[in-house]
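Q: Got a minute? One more chain.
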Amino acid sequence: MPGLKKYPATAKLFEIMRLPIADINAQNERVRNGQGSQADIARHTAGWIKFHQELFDSWIAQAKAAAKP
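A: Always. Here it is, folded:
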């Protein structure tokens, strides 16, 4: 990702973030079942982050550390 050299925190975040396929499948199923509005997706995202807070926080910390000179 050549353009990301200017944004080391973003590059690091893209490098380390991994979502379990089961979680992606569950989200897709919610959308297929009518929970696909912007508000629904925001609620699902917030719930996923809350449930995986420690992992999410570690991603953010690593990304921030990559931005430091």
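A: Helices lie at 8-16, 21-32, 38-51, 53-67.
Q: Perfect, thanks.
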